[in-house]
Amino acid sequence: MAVLDAVNRLRTLGVMLREITPPSGCSKADILAAVGAADDWVDSNAAAYNLALPQPFRGQASAAQKALLIAYLCMRRAGKLAAPED
């Protein structure tokens, strides 16, 4: 998966600002820069993430499924993903 273009980074920022209270002292431009940096980091580290996944998942899962896996984990860590068992 390629990095997001400018429009999609802005849309990500918009969703994020509707969901969270921005850190104090951070402007929208500061947060947009963080969105870009995180997106670039994901792209730069995709190979290492892929290698960390065990087979057969690594070989059978699509790029979208692998992205959702880490997204769900991060959302759970952030308290944004509830499970029916909670």
Structure in words:
With 86 residues, this protein is mainly alpha-helical. The chain has two domains: 1-44, no CATH class; 45-86, no CATH class. It contains five helices and no strands. The protein has helices at 6-19, 28-44, 46-52, 57-60, 63-77. α1 crosses α2 (28-44). The relative contact order is 0.10. The mean pLDDT is 96.
Report low-confidence residues grouped into runs of 5 or more: none
- Which secondary-structure class do the elements indicate? mainly alpha
The number of distinct structural domains comes to 2
Rounded to the nearest angstrom, the radius of gyration is 15 Å
Topology (elements, then pairings):
Layout: H1 6-19, H2 28-44, H3 46-52, H4 57-60, H5 63-77
Helix pairs in contact: 1-2
Give a quick summary of the entry.
This protein is mostly helical and 86 residues long. It has helices spanning 6-19, 28-44, 46-52, 57-60, 63-77.
Which short descriptors sum up this protein?
5 helices, mainly alpha, 2 domains, globular, 86 residues
